[in-house]
Structure formats: structure tokens, C-alpha cells
Amino acid sequence: MKVETDGNTRADRNAALVEVMLLAAMADGKLTEGSIQALLRRVLERPEFDGTQPEEISALLETSVKRLASESSLEAILQRLRDRLPSHQNRLLAFGLAASIAFADQKATRAELGLLKTFQAALGISEDEVANLVEVVESGRSLNEVLGEPLERLYAEVMILVTAADGKVKPAESRALIESLASDPLFQEIDASRAQSYLSDSVQALADQGLPERLRVLAHGLTTHAQRAQDPRHAAGHLRARRRRGRPPSSGGLKMDAPIPLRGVFRFGFPPSLPAAPAPGATGRLTRVLSGIVGRPVRLVSYVEYDALTEALRRGDVDAAWAPPLVAARAEALGARVLVRPLRRGSVRSRSALLVRADTSLQLETLGGTTAAWVDRNSLAGYLLAISWLRERGLEPARLFSQQLFLGSFQAALEALLGGEADVTALFAPPEGHDLRQSVEEVAPGRSQDVRVLACTMPALHDAWVVAPHLSLPEALRLERGLLAVRELPEGTALLRDVLRAERLERAPELGHRELFGRGLGDVTLPLRFEASA
């Protein structure tokens, strides 16, 4: 006989969540392909659906459509939703998912807003909760900011904490934990591989974030007395088993004698030129944050040329990368996926400023015969935007300059200008309305008074974070989910400030970077030497 916990199963909850999203998608009386794609994206990115196979999702959608069509009234549908979503946390999640569908095209119609108000009343969501959820959805951030983590994942973490009370998890204990989760009525629809994934994630989170932070997360996620009482019952069984094996609990740091297996190293491609040199220790922070998100060790792989990073994404030499704009556009055209992009000074775009030394009288008309210092032939702000601006004014760089140096980074190009090796360079510049000298201060602190802005280009998309074509969709969505919520992590704010130099990350629109090709700033063709070696 199937045992039900809390009156509902995981399948009931997930079916109810899909039905809520379907209702939101059909609020205007039709179900479009775009709405279906938005719904599938939400299903795949939510941890509540972890382990659900594509064929199971298709069957769930088909069953949900038939169930909705068979109901006699909206009130009957809402009553079934309430029955299958008894906890307030799940009702908040349902409303948040419905809102994410309604606002998928950046605006909600009157019909969609009306349906959301109906959901709010039926599910008992307060005005403050609605405001928080809608604000998170509209800004493209993770619903976890409001909702926390799934209960199954939190219960598993409590079991890990008890089992590792003496600081170790033996192989036998790992197997016992997995078997316990997979056979427990509370986890009846979670197989052994999913149970192992929950435990691996719990161990990784504890190692990365530390015990105090994870206890805070547990307190936030297990909000009711019934939920908090559920954990001690499960944990007590593991504690008794440990005592029978003659191992009393003790204190100390977590140490895995034979860790619950994690997947291999996650390879992250690092661009040849960053907007500014990271603060000391910042790359270590990046590694730790990424490792916590993807659930496995991370290795940073640096590339000295833009084309090499593009090729590494295409060939699968890296799993993901922080990509300059044209690298992101080319990689996306080759099958990679752009996940997120940084918001800097309120914009996802930046300009290029043509700079000369302040102690010269150079003007646009007198640039002939001078030396230019650029970053890379594929650098948007460090070369392409600048030469495009010059060509629009009838100045061909190959004839204008006596020499063009490609130095690999903004720092090197600016140093060449300041040191007298070059007469002009190009540097990324903030959006209109901001002081252009801010960029100089980021790259060469205290030297902004030594340069003069000769011209400034129109803005274009700046860098983005990209996953390689070979990375599975669940892994890509896990990374995206973590990056969108990076400010919640212990080191997230420092990472944004010291490495990305951004206020936050936002979800990138699909194929958004292809606009760079439309502007004639580059094409999708990779250098022939790469094609020859493929």
C-alpha cells in the first residue's frame, strides 16, 4: 500500500505546479509555443523537478491539460490545487511560477494579471508576498530568494549533519543514508541516484558554506513545527544506528573518509582580458562560489586569445566560460548557451572610449601616422567598436595608423599609452550619463587625469557567462539558477564587487548576442587554423 506523507506526494505537488503554470500560460485563451517553452524552462530549472525525465515531463503536461479540460469550473480547479498544495511554501512557489509565466515576455496582460489576483486569493498569498515574488520574477532573479530550498533536500541535509556528527562519513554510512532516503515513505518517489545527489549536494554545501550558514538555511526552509519535527524522527533513526555500531557522536569539522561520490572537475574558461584586474584572492573566491553552485570541484582555465576561448567552448575543452561579447556571440551561434550577463551601472551595455594622453594636442584630424594600442582583434570595447567608429567617419585604421599593437589586455594597452609607447588606445566606457574617467580609474587607479577622451562610441552588449554545447540542460540550469541568486551566497557580494565589477547578474535572452553580427562588428566565422585542426 502506498504511504502518503502530509496528505500529498511529490508527484501531486509537481502536477499541481504544472497546472498552475498551464493556467497562467492559457490566461489569454490560447496556448502558444512560446508559453510552452517558458513553462518547460521553469520545470527544468526548479529543484522540485530534479530527476524527472523528459518523457515524464511530456506525460505530466499531457495529463495536466486533460485534467484541466475535464474540470467543471475554475473554482473546482482551485480547490484541487489547494488540496495538493497544503503548505504555504508550496503555494508561494505555485504563485511565483505562475507569475514567471505571466511575465515571461516582460509584461503581463490584463487577463494574466486577473488570473494572478485569483491565485492570490485562492492560495492565501499576502500583498507583501505578492510584491516580493513579482519583484524577483521581473528582475530575472531566482525564486529561491523568497522560497528557500525544497524540503526533500533540507531533510537530507539534516541526516548528513547527524551522521557526520563525529566529523566523518564512512562508506557504509553513505550507503545506509542513500538506502534510507530511497526507501523512506517521505522520499517514496525519489530513486537511489536522486537520493545520492541530494546527499552529495548537502555535503558540498556544508563544506563550502560552513555549519552556521547551513543552519540558517535550514531554519529558513523548515518553517513549521511539523516540518522541524519530521527531521528529528529521521535523524534519530540514524543516530541510534550509529550508537549500535559503537560510534558515539562528537564534535569536529566534517571530514569524508570516503566521500559520497561527486562528479569530475568542472572546467571554467577565463577570458584573456577582464574589465579590470581582480582584487587579490578574488579568483579563489570565484572558484569557491562556482564549486558551491555546480556541486563539484572547479578548475579555472585561462586563455591568452579570444579565439582560443571560443574554440575551447566549441570543442568541449571547458564546461562554461566568462566570455567577452564577441566570444559569447560566436559561441552561441555554434550551439553554446548564454546564461547570464552582468549589470554594470544599471546597464548590460558599455561603450568604447578612444583615449589619448592629456599632455598631447592630438585630435581626430591629426591621428595620421600615430601608433594605436589595442586589446585583441576580437575585443569589442578594446578594438572593434573603436575602428568601426573611425570607419564610419572615412578613416581606415590600416592607413591611418603607422603601427597597431595588439597587447592582450586593457591594462597593457592603457599602460602603453601612458608610457608613451602608443598615442591612442580604446577602453571600455560606462553608459551615457556616467563619468568616462571611471573606467580609467578601474584599470589604472590615480591616472584618470593623465588621459583625455578623444571620442566615445555607441553602446553595445558587454560580456556574458556561457555554457558549452555539451553541458546537459539540468546542469546548465543549475548553474544559471545559482548565478542569478549569487548575491545570496556568503561570498557572492564580494564576487560581484571584486571580480565581475557588477551590481548583479541577470538572465540573458536567447540568442541576444547575435545583434553584434547585425551591426557588422564581427561574423560567426572562426579562424581557418581552428577549422583545419578540428
Summarize the structure.
This protein is an alpha/beta fold and 534 residues long.
Strand percentage lies at: 5-15%
User: Distance between the terminal alpha carbons, to the nearest Å?
Assistant: 57 Å
Kindly give the count of domains: 4
CATH topology of the largest domain: D-Maltodextrin-Binding Protein, domain 2
Proportion of residues in helical segments: 40-55%
Structure class: alpha/beta
Radius of gyration: 27 Å
The low-confidence parts are 1-8, 223-228, 231-263, 522-534
Task: Walk me through this protein's architecture.
This protein has a six-stranded mixed β-sheet, sandwiched between helices. Strands 5, 6, 7, 8, 9 and 10 form a six-stranded mixed β-sheet that branches. The longest helix has 20 residues, at 225-244. The chain is built from 24 helices and twelve strands. The protein has four domains: 10-146, TerB-like (Orthogonal Bundle); 151-244, no CATH class; 266-344 and 463-515 and 524-533, Periplasmic binding protein-like II (D-Maltodextrin-Binding Protein, domain 2); 349-461, D-Maltodextrin-Binding Protein, domain 2 (3-Layer(aba) Sandwich), CATH 3.40.190. By secondary structure, it is α/β, with parallel strands linked by helices. It has helices spanning 10-25, 33-45, 54-70, 74-84, 88-102, 110-123, 127-138, 144-147, 151-163, 171-183, 192-209, 211-221, 225-244, 282-294, 306-315, 325-333, 380-392, 397-400, 410-418, 437-443, 473-484, 492-500, 515-518, 528-533; strands at 266-270, 298-302, 320-323, 337-343, 349-357, 371-374, 403-406, 424-429, 451-456, 460-461, 464-467, 504-507. The protein is elongated, with a radius of gyration of 27 Å.
